[in-house]
Write a structure and sequence with these properties.
Layout (H helix, E strand, L loop, with lengths): L5 E9 L2 E12 L8 E10 L1 H13 L13 E2 L2 E11 L9 E7 L3 E4 L1 E5 L2 E4 L13 E4 L11 H23 L7 E4 L5 H10 L6 E6 L4 H7 L4 E4 L12 E5 L4 H11 L3 E6 L19 E3 L2 H12 L1 H19 L8 E6 L1 H13 L6 E6 L2
């Protein structure tokens, strides 16, 4: 089934200046090639993670290759969200079906479904064949045990962040916290950071210390998921002889230097988990202690798929995600307030605010394409 002619609207990002965007309109004749589908993007989340992956995209996962723009200077920023099948020439994918997955910031996107099952499909477009498989998978909402229509916006927000949190907590536990008795978490007000704390929970033998700005201290203390909260200025009051792991969501070079110099050889591991404000790769330093090591969730996912099998990984993740989503979607909760906006112009403004670090930690942004 073809679609009548229509206009595709796309938001593109300047790859070397992530706060710079442009909106482009392009006519489409609506005709589909055999095996192709056209999806209409409905809603997606925008978080610090989008900025982090855009900043490190080429080095980490060929981020800009998922939805090529045809222009080396401009890219389509991928986002997590929901889309509906507007037209289909692919067997097993029907018009009107709804899918969760990785989409460009755009009104429409064409895909070539392969490995179609009752659960969904993978985009088999040639340019995606060498990219990380997990990001090419699209889940059929009607077959997703974690899907709940009233909670779509929360799923768009929390599922991509929470997989990072869930697998980071698992990575740390899998490695025995590298022998640490103290874990210092920077940018502790970020959703991925406190999602990690939620997964870790309170445990004997490990003190989880939230490090945050003075402005966000009250919010972080109110979360109740850290054992202790300190401002960045108070970091050097922490015991310097306790084996310590640094879980860095800030990417701040000066802060990292303070941590390394204060803890010295007691710093057993420096785990760089990402940052919205860090526009380049980690700088080489001669700081005491271990070199910063980039954490990348798909690596731990692959390990656990081998250890437990994909079905068990999904079961454990869905169980934890449902508990987290229930907490954050509860009216009046202290964790998160959903902010829904409409249109790609709104998306532009949110990207600017995220890149500048001006989004309040309580606020979580979802864009409805309209």
């Amino acid at each position: 089934m073809n679609q009548d002619a229509f206009t595709v609207t796309r938001l593109q990002t300047r790859r070397n200046s992530l706060a710079t965007t442009r909106i482009r309109h392009e006519d489409d004749d609506g005709r589909l090639a055999p095996g192709e589908v056209l999806l209409r993007v409905d809603r997606f989340s925008l978080t610090t993670n989008n900025i982090t992956y855009a900043a490190f995209g080429d080095a980490m996962m060929k981020y800009w290759s998922f939805f090529p723009s045809g222009d080396e200077d401009w890219g389509h920023m991928p986002v997590w969200g929901f889309a509906d099948v507007a037209a289909s020439a692919a067997e097993g994918v029907e018009v009107g079906e709804r899918f969760y997955g990785y989409f460009p910031i755009a009104s429409h996107v064409r895909m070539q479904p392969v490995r179609v099952t009752s659960r969904g499909f993978y985009d088999g477009a040639p340019h995606r064949s060498g990219l990380i498989s997990a990001y090419n998978q699209y889940t059929r909402c009607s077959a997703d045990p974690a899907y709940a229509q009233p909670l779509e916006s929360y799923q768009a927000l929390l599922r991509p962040l929470f997989i990072t949190s869930f697998m980071l907590a698992d990575f740390l536990e899998d490695n025995g916290f590298f022998g640490a008795t103290q874990a210092v978490v920077s940018s502790a007000s970020s959703k991925t950071a406190y999602g990690t704390a939620f997964c870790l929970g309170r445990r004997a033998g490990l003190q989880l210390v939230a490090a945050t700005s003075a402005r966000n201290r009250g919010f972080v203390e109110g979360l109740g998921c850290y054992d202790k909260t300190v401002s960045y200025e108070e970091l050097t009051t922490l015991p310097a002889d306790a084996p310590t792991i640094y879980i860095d969501f800030s990417g701040d070079d000066a802060l990292r230097a303070t941590v390394h110099r204060h803890f010295g050889e007691a710093l057993v591991y420096d785990c760089f988990a990402g940052s919205a404000q860090k526009p380049a790769w980690l700088e080489e330093t001669d700081l005491p202690g271990p070199k910063p090591t980039l954490y990348f969730a798909p690596v731990q996912i692959r390990k656990r798929n081998a250890d437990w099998g994909p079905q068990e990984v999904n079961r454990r993740f869905n169980e934890a995600q449902q508990r987290f989503m229930a907490e954050l979607s509860r009216p009046g909760n202290r964790w998160m307030t959903l902010v829904e906006s409409e249109g790609l112009e709104a998306a532009r403004q949110v990207i600017v605010e995220l890149h500048a670090g001006r989004v309040e930690p309580l606020h979580a942004h979802v864009i409805r394409v309209g």
